[in-house]
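Standup notes
- DV: blocked on the single-chain target, sequence here:
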Amino acid sequence: MNTAKKGFTVIELLVVCTFACLLLIFFFIQKSNVDAMNRDDQRKTAINAMYYALEEGFFAENGYYPESISEENLKVIDPALFTDPNGINLGSEGSSYSYEPANCKNGKCKEYTLRATLEKEDIYTKKNRVN
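- DV (later): unblocked, structure below
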């Protein structure tokens, strides 16, 4: 008569549970990284849209750059792009976007720098074209 019982030993169950836990940890770390990279891509897209709106729209029409940018003076881009992925508007404290005009006189600037603080890369910067 065979008295062997069918089933798993405690050690086998511990090995499987440990392996499953490691896979879950790896999954959530990778998901966090992918989410951060997606937010960085959103920031780059917004900065590029602002840059081209400034260069091809505002500067081409006026011959100078504004002291500040908003949806009022850059009407050609989606207003939602002025809000970073954290929900903070450009120019507000804590925003990952910044617009820094330079060489200004009477509200008309000759230069600017657009910046986005990224999570997984260095700061993304766009400057005015050499005019």
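- Follow-up: The first strand starts at residue 65 and ends at 66.
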